Amino acid sequence: MKKILGILGLLIAVCVATMLGNPRFLSPGNVENVIRLTAFFGLISIGVAFVIITGGIDLSIGSTVALTGCLLAMFLAVEYVPREGALNVLEVRADPRALVLSGDVGDLAKGDQLRTSAASGTYRFLTVNSVDKEQDRTVAGVVEPPSIVAAGGRVTIAKLNHMNEVVAVGLVLLISVGIGLLHGLLVTKMRLQPFVVTLCGLLFYRGYARYLTNEQTQRFDSSLTGLKYLASGEPFQIPIPFLNWIGEGHWSRYAWDVTNARHSVDAQGNLIPLDLIAWVAIPMPAIILFVVAVLAAIFLNRTIYGRYLLALGRNEQAARYSGINTNRMTVLAYVICSVLGGIAGILFALDLNSIQPASHGNFYELYAISAAVLGGCSLRGGEGAILGVLIGTAVMRVLSNSIVLLEIPTNLEFAIIGVVLLAGVIADELVKRYAARRRARHEAALAEKGA
Amino acid sequence: MTGAASANDIPPPTGPAAPLLEVRGVSKRFPGVQALSDIRLALARGEVLALIGENGAGKSTLMKILAGVQPPDSGEILLDGRPVQLDSVRAAQAFGIALIHQELNLADNLDVGANLFLGREPRTALGLIDRAKIYRESVEILRRVGLDVPPRTIVRTLSIGYQQMVEIAKALSANARVLIMDEPTSSLTSGEAARLFALIKDLRGKGVSIIYISHRLGEVHELADRVTVFRDGRNAGDLNCDQITHDNMVRLMVGRELAQFYARTIHEPREAVLEVDSLRVAPRGKHPVSFAVRAGEIVGMAGLVGAGRTELLDTIFGVRKPISGTVRVAGKAIQLDGPIQPIAAGIALVPEDRKHQGLVIEMSVRENVSLAALHRQAKRGWLDRRGERRLAAETIERLRVRTPSDQQIVHYLSGGNQQKVVLGKWLALKPRVLLLDEPTRGVDVGAKHEIYRIMESLAAEGVAVLFVSSDMEEVLGMSDRTLVMHEGRITGELSRDRLSEEAIMQLATGRDAASAAQARAI
Known about the structure:
heterodimer; A: alpha+beta; ABC transporter involved in vitamin B12 uptake, BtuC; Elongation Factor Tu (Ef-tu), domain 3; 6-stranded antiparallel β-barrel; two-stranded antiparallel sheet; globular; B: alpha/beta; 6-stranded mixed beta sheet; 21 helices
């Protein structure tokens, strides 16, 4: 608990320092950006925390992120199958937006994705809502913006063909489970060192991703909106008071000549009133992270399996001698780590939408390990709390954000993270020593009293 | 108090007139335990002083202080009458004090010569190690301890006895005047031990002073000029040459009569619960081992270190795979592949290595006590936190664990209380068979008594108890029946009326039961 307070203090300190240097740190857009990145990295940090708690390490996370991202993009590669003959547009419906088309629609089915092209060359992606084969009619939902043709016009269609999204995501997660199982079994059954096993993983998955993709940048088709919502959706906003005033108002250096904190100033020098409440969009990944973190914390603290992990991380032998299946628990930790790596891999890929097989996810394992260590995990094993890991991740993200906002050369990023991590670890050690000394003094005092 | 009574029996001994080494009023406290209080000790030139006491009496702590491993909290140490600061191993060595540790401190991947000169290698003009000089001088150094091995021998390939001699030779070559030997014969064969005794007598003649720590009173009787006894971190008394008898030593060590210490009521043993049938223990497994322990019975297992007793218990518990053979609990054979099946069948093991195998030392009392029982309390994997607290409270109460709270980290408890936590962990499972491996090692006298009480009450409840011990008094005091092992084989079984230290030693050194009976007759 004390550790978590310490790291929370560090997070607040970094935030305050950044805010003082550049109030835009608290602008709703930037806050959302930091939350989004924290969510992505938080997933892999929680994953590696499980492995670190067992006393192991996973160096392959960055490569796992790259491989799963590439695989997802490859599974979801879209093929356009052009269709013979054009369809007539019977009707353009306004609410909900839809086109009613007629013609030979025997090969269409509900849920099919279509690319409709008008004579003008513009196109829209549609999803088939219903097919009425009796009358050769189909109703296809239109995505925004408005329709490209009017009733009476004609459109040509191409059918979009790709693997079902759920199947593709399921496959990628299954492969992640396989990676974790492989690591876990090599560590427990073959008694190989986790460092070596996952180092080989780091090399292999990266190399394999590059080979599979032939080094080609991977992208997702723009029709995959549903899936992309997972990475870039903003399901709701939360109101936070004063953010606008701090970010844009009186204290902001962008509005230095405005004496009233509640106003900003535009290029012409006009005062623009600022809302008291700023609405910060909560990105979808943050919700995913929240769910994962709550589950992880419950697993670690409220189930016997979490206790087993903590116990075997401290002392594998004693745990085994107590009748705990330590091998199975260790394998489970590696599987959790790889699956979270896979989920993060999917989200990173969807968010970025441009995956360079050679560089995507580089160093992510080190970000994750740093966040876990900063958050109170001991590489000796048996120590760690999910909340700490989350705060550790946030510290890393805020640091990297503040480097941009404070106009510190970005090539210093690693150096700064290194220094902060080292300082954190040293502070932790000093606190520990201080506590030990106090305990010894306390013991001695008790002994005197006893004697 | 018994200490006062024994002081009346034995006339106060006179210490050496001008001691080489003197310890005055040294105290040392560790978290949870006062290891030494106001200890004094004197050692003359060319004297062999035996330091004895029960486990946890503070012998090893004092030795570590003398060797500069730990500083004392208070008190002073005088060498040649002058106070000295032994604040590092290097400082102690510079004053000529060397510790020959139970676990040897040799770089066993290097050769003998390299070890003898480790940290003070002679250099050539170029600053490189002068290997020729090392090997030349090594031969001479080894001759001094009567060790005839080439200095280029890799230490690992030597027997433990020879390795120990290398360590002694190393100390002597660094001009040690005081040699401290901590249980030097604990892992030696009898031949190696005899050789060591000859060397010790020889060194004494050459004016080297030796502090000899041992549990084996026979050795002490043979070697010591004087005996200092510790009990619970205090001086319990000193014995001069003619006072050094077995009875005197035991009385000072234990501080009370044995009979009342090992409070035993013998129960009518019932059906056999644990049956071991031609079990061959890895890796040697030459001799199949068979025996049975009945409900309500306490069976002791004696033997020398390395006789294979720990390996046997580990095999029964499933953590060591057997070559062949079966173990049955209440008539049902159990699968010996990991401890999960044996535990489910009702076997519990209090292992020898408490800190590594018995406890998760950095976790709390509560977490340790519940560790083995968690899955029985849990519903669908959910931690039953209230049940866990209740279990910890019951255990602390029942076993009289002295701890400020159930949240205390086990590391900060004394050895005895740690051992009670290990016992508590298993009692939570209500075992039918309790295996204990050196249950009172590193445990203070008071806690020892309580552990015996727990063993006794479990037997009364019908648990089959099998304990391994190298503490002869404990075997004599606690067992209904004693099995003796020698080199992986059970060489004999002694019922309570045939039990004696001599009979055990005969069997433990591989002589047959007939000569053991003879020894009893003598």
